[in-house]
TrEMBL record:
Region (Disordered): 1-22
SMART domains in the cross-refs: Catalase (SM01060)
Molecular function as annotated in GO: catalase activity; heme binding; metal ion binding
Active site (UniProt): 55, 128
InterPro entries, sorted: Catalase, Catalase_3, Catalase_AS, Catalase_clade1/3, Catalase_core, Catalase_immune_responsive, Catalase_sf
PROSITE patterns, alphabetized: CATALASE_2, CATALASE_3
Recorded GO CC terms: cytoplasm
Enzyme Commission number(s) of this protein: 1.11.1.6
Annotated protein name in UniProt: catalase
C-alpha cells in the first residue's frame, strides 16, 4: 500500500479533479454541481479573521521557564515552588500600531506576551519591552491608540495626531522619551528586555501579600537600530524580526531572558512618595532591587503560524494562585478588555484552541456556543450546585481580602495632587539612564518625528510639547527647539504662563 494520501473534500470524500472546473463543453459555462469549486472558493473567502485591534503584527515561539532561585517567601504559585522546575510556555512578540503586514522595524513599543502553561492554569503575563506606558487610565486607551493608527481622512499615519495627543497629555512624556530614543527601534525581538509593566501582587503560603513588578533581561544583550538603520531595514526586509527569531531558533541559538522581580511590601506602598500603581512610573531600582527568579528560553518555532500565533490569545486577567492583580487602573481596565476582544476575534470558545488550551484540568459549567469542539462536557451536569459530579470550589484558592483604604466611589483625577509629577522620571531617564550617544539620537529622532506635524495647529502643538521637554530637562528642550528652528524666547514665555 502506498503512503500517498487521497485528496478529499473537507467532509472527507476523495475526489479526482482539483484543477479543472466542470463545464458544459471544453469552453462552455460552469456547472453549479461542481461542489468542490464552491467549497474551495467559499473557504478561501473566509480565511481572514479580524486582526488584533492593536499588536496585529507579531511573531511567536514556544519555550520553557526554569526556576533558578527560591521566591517562595513571596509567592505560593506552583510554577515557582522548586529550583530547577520547568514550565512550558508560549511567547508572542509584536509591534503595536501597525497592521498585520506592517514592518517589524517601526518606531513603536514591542509586545512581550507570555503564556505559562502551569498546573494551576494558564498564567498570561501580557507586557511590553518598556516598563511604563503612555496613559494611566484605561478610559484614555482607545483615544491614544487612534492617534497611533491612521488619520480618518488621509488614511496616513499622522505625526500631527500623535504629538497633539502627547502634548495634551503630559503623563505620556516618560514613555514618549523611551519611544523616541533608539529603544523605540529595537534590533530584533531577541535583543530587548521584557516587562510585566504593571504592579501585580504575590501571595505566599501564609496568605501575605506583596506588590511586584516583573522584568525579563535579555541574555542576548540590548541592541537597537538607529532611526536611519531602522528605515533602511524597513525597505530591505519588512519581516526582519520574524526572520531573525526563526533563524536563531532553527539554528538552535535559543534566546534567553532572566526573569527578575521587584518587591514592595504593602507598608512600603503606603509610605511611597508617589502612587506605586501608576503605570507611567517605574520603581527606583536603588530602593527596590531586582531579585533573581529564573530563566526563560525560546526553543521551538510553531509549526503553523495561523494556528498557533494568529489564534493565540493572552489576557492579563489570567493569573494563577499566588499571583494577583493590583489597583493599577490600567491593569483593571485590561482585565475586561482582552477576553472581550478575543470573543470577537476568535469566538466564544477561543480557550479551546490548542495554543490557548490549558494542558491540565479545565472543569466548569460553561457549555455550548459556536465552534465548541472539546466534547462540551459530554453527559456531565451543566449546572452548579448539583448532586452528581465531583467538581468543588476549593476554598484554599481564595485570595486574602484587600484593604484599599478608601470606600469612596468617584471619578478621581488621575493627575491629582501627589500624582501630577510627569517630569522627574523622564528627566532622570535623560540625565542618568542615557549617555551622550543616546541623548544625541533621542533629540534627532524627536526632531525628525515632530517635523512631520502639519496644519494650522502646528506651532501650538510644537510649543506645548516643547514645554514638556523643557520641564523634564532644559538641555533636552533646547536641543529639540534648536532642531525645529523654534524661537526659544517665545516658548519660554509660554512656559512661564502655563
Ligand atoms: C487600558 C489599556 C489597554 C487596553 C484596553 C488594551 C487592549 C488590548 C487589546 C484589545 C488587545 C488585542 C487582544 C487580542 O485581540 O488578542 C491588546 C493586545 C496587546 N496588548 Fe494591550 N491594551 C492596553 C494596554 C496595554 C499595556 C499597558 C500593555 C503592556 C504593558 C499591553 C500589551 C499588549 C500586548 C503585548 C498585546 C498583544 C498580545 C498578543 O501578542 O496577542 N497593552 N491590547
Amino acid at each position: 500500500m502506498s503512503n500517498e494520501r487521497k485528496l478529499t473534500t473537507a467532509s472527507g470524500t476523495p475526489y479526482a479533479e482539483n484543477e479543472n472546473s466542470q463545464s458544459v463543453g471544453a469552453r462552455g459555462p460552469l456547472l453549479l454541481q461542481d461542489f468542490v469549486l464552491h467549497e474551495k472558493m467559499a473557504h478561501f473567502n473566509r480565511e481572514r479573521i479580524p486582526e488584533r485591534v492593536v499588536h496585529a503584527k507579531g511573531s511567536g515561539a514556544f519555550g520553557k521557564f526554569t526556576v533558578t532561585h527560591d521566591i517562595s517567601r513571596y509567592t505560593k504559585a506552583k510554577i515557582f515552588n522548586k529550583i530547577g522546575k520547568e514550565t512550558n510556555l508560549f511567547l508572542r512578540f509584536s509591534t503595536v500600531g501597525g497592521e498585520k503586514g506592517s514592518a517589524d522595524t517601526e518606531r513603536d513599543p514591542r509586545g512581550f506576551a507570555i503564556k505559562f502553561y502551569t498546573e494551576d492554569g494558564n498564567w498570561d503575563l501580557v507586557g511590553n519591552n518598556t516598563p511604563v506606558f503612555f496613559v494611566k487610565d484605561p478610559k484614555k486607551f482607545s483615544d491614544f491608540i487612534h492617534t497611533q493608527k491612521r488619520d480618518p481622512r488621509t488614511n496616513l499615519k499622522s505625526p500631527t495626531m500623535m504629538w497633539d495627543f502627547w502634548s495634551l497629555n503630559p503623563e505620556s512624556l516618560h514613555q514618549v522619551l523611551i519611544l523616541m530614543s533608539d529603544r523605540g527601534t529595537p534590533h530584533s525581538y531577541r535583543h530587548m528586555d521584557g516587562f510585566g509593566s504593571h504592579t501585580f501582587s504575590m501571595i505566599n503560603a501564609e496568605n501575605e501579600r506583596v506588590w511586584v513588578k516583573f522584568h525579563f533581561k535579555t541574555r542576548q544583550g540590548i541592541k537597537n537600530f538607529t532611526d536611519s538603520e531602522a528605515a533602511e531595514m524597513k525597505s530591505r526586509d519588512l519581516d526582519f524580526a520574524q526572520r531573525d527569531l526563526i533563524e536563531a531558533i532553527d539554528s538552535k541559538n535559543f534566546p534567553k531572558w532572566d526573569m527578575k522581580i521587584q518587591v514592595m511590601t504593602t507598608e512600603q506602598a503606603e509610605q511611597f512618595p508617589f502612587n506605586p500603581f501608576d503605570l507611567t512610573k517605574v520603581w527606583p531600582h536603588a530602593d527596590f532591587p531586582l531579585i533573581d527568579v529564573g530563566v526563560l528560553e525560546l526553543n521551538q518555532i510553531p509549526k503553523n503560524y495561523f494556528a498557533q500565533v494568529e489564534q493565540s490569545a493572552f489576557a492579563p486577567a489570567h493569573v494563577i494562585d499566588g499571583i494577583g492583580y493590583s489597583p493599577d487602573k490600567m491593569l483593571q481596565g485590561r482585565l475586561l478588555s482582552y477576553p472581550d476582544a478575543q470573543r470577537y476575534r476568535l469566538g466564544v470558545n477561543y480557550e479551546q484552541i490548542p495554543v490557548n488550551r490549558c494542558p491540565y484540568m479545565v472543569s466548569n459549567y460553561e457549555r455550548d456556543g459556536a465552534m465548541r469542539v472539546d466534547g462540551n462536557g459530554d453527559d456531565s451536569p451543566n449546572y452548579f450546585p448539583n448532586s452528581f459530579d465531583d467538581i468543588v470550589a476549593d476554598q484554599t484558592y481564595k485570595e486574602p481580602a484587600w484593604d484599599l483604604g478608601t470606600g469612596v466611589a468617584d471619578w478621581f483625577d488621575r493627575n491629582g495632587a501627589g500624582d501630577n509629577d510627569h517630569y522627574t522620571q523622564p528627566g532622570l531617564l535623560y540625565t542618568k539612564a542615557m549617555n551622550d550617544y543616546d541623548r544625541h539620537n533621542l533629540v534627532s529622532n524627536i526632531v525628525g518625528a515632530m517635523s512631520g506635524i502639519e496644519g494650522p495647529k502646528r506651532e501650538e502643538i510644537i510649543n506645548r510639547q516643547l514645554c514638556h521637554f523643557f520641564r523634564a530637562n532644559a538641555e533636552l528642550g533646547m536641543g529639540v527647539a534648536r532642531g525645529l528652528n523654534v524661537n526659544i524666547d517665545e516658548v519660554m514665555s509660554h512656559l512661564r504662563h502655563a
